[in-house]
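Step 1: inspect the first sequence and its tokens.
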Amino acid sequence: MTMRAPLTDLPIMFADTGYVVSTLPVLTQISLTIGAGTPTILIGPNGSGKTTLLRLAMGLASPSSGRVTWNGRTEVPPTRRAIMFQRPAMLRRSAAGNVRYALAAAGVPRADRDECTADLLARVGLDALRDRPARRLSGGEQQRLALARALARNPEVLFLDEPTASLDPAATKAIEDVIRTVAASGIKVVMATHDLGEARRLAGEIVLLHRGRVVETGPAASFFAAPHTEEARKFIAGELLV
């Protein structure tokens, strides 16, 4: 009997991809491959197109030109992908109730949901707060709960849109610790951040966006040590990109 390899959504490939809102180009001629392995971190100024690129990679939007493919396929339902936005909404229920809701939406059998809920809350360090109303959690705790809900989909790829924005250093470290654990488990993490320190700490690969274009990509170590483009050198130095 021939064994078929399990389906995968990786690599995700952008081929001359553009995205336009009204007449305003948000992304222009994006050619990019996101493969398995260490986290891919998207950096760039506000308005550079990071969120839009994540939405296209997730399948929440369709390109205006070019195409996006998942392991060579198009029109792939996002059953193996999950996304967490910068300001996720909390349901009016407990932390555990939020996770159970996400598990139900992901099709996890009812008999397995309690055990899965406990596992996911422990994974993000919220097991002691399982009965607390989600909307009474701190900002950092809510972000970790949102991570647990995203992980309820058991994704192959996890997209994160600035998950530590506006958090204090302790809350940021807690989120980064979860991201490291998630990446170490084999889940591909693709994350947008404006924090260069965070990018240095987490990235395996860097993608620098500016004005809707990919300016430079490469392994994080070489990107920060010896950037190839003037835009990258300026951005790393903290200078404004105009």
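Step 2: inspect the second sequence and its tokens, then contrast the two.
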Amino acid sequence: MDSANLSRRSLLQAIAAVMATATAPVGWAQVALAFDQAHAAHGSGERRLSWLKETEAADIEAVAAQIIPTDDSPGAQEAGVVYFIDRALGTFFSQLASDYRAQLAVFRAGYLARYPTARSFASLTSEQQVELLKRVDHTPFFTTTHLLTLLGMFTLPVYGGNRDNVGWKLIGFEDTHAFYPPFGYYDRDYPGFIESARIK
């Protein structure tokens, strides 16, 4: 297995650990296949919107920023998650795109009904955003956005998100095909590793 495939497999394992409780609208086999297709189709990693409108992207970015907020560490906004979502829905998750856009329209109508003078979800205060998201956290829109946010945070940067590897740094993931001992507390004091290093 080459290093690129091993790196993708290791990353998917890391994502799976982070997303153990997430409800996925597609299966893991489809996620892995989609990632391979995306890698082949978008090798440049360029970040620009192609499927989402600017107003839609602003609202989705604000939702993603509440899912993985910026605090002492970078969050979804710094990771450029919205660009991953845009690319995903425009290409390798296009089977979700039509439903997602309709769900987004319902979400937007909902917050405008509650805050008629709001220019956008992004323009609301953080407290207002959280209050609204608590009301919709069971909906398909939020479930899909939650999944895509996590994928965009921890995916390979070439897919549009995880800018500057901020997601990987957050979970301690290293994009490498080689792993060196010690691997954990159980073998950290094993003297054989020192001898192995000397032989090399």
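Step 3: confirm your contrast with the notes below.
Confidence is low (pLDDT under 50) at residues 1-8, 18-24, 41-45, 196-200. The chain has ten helices and no strands.
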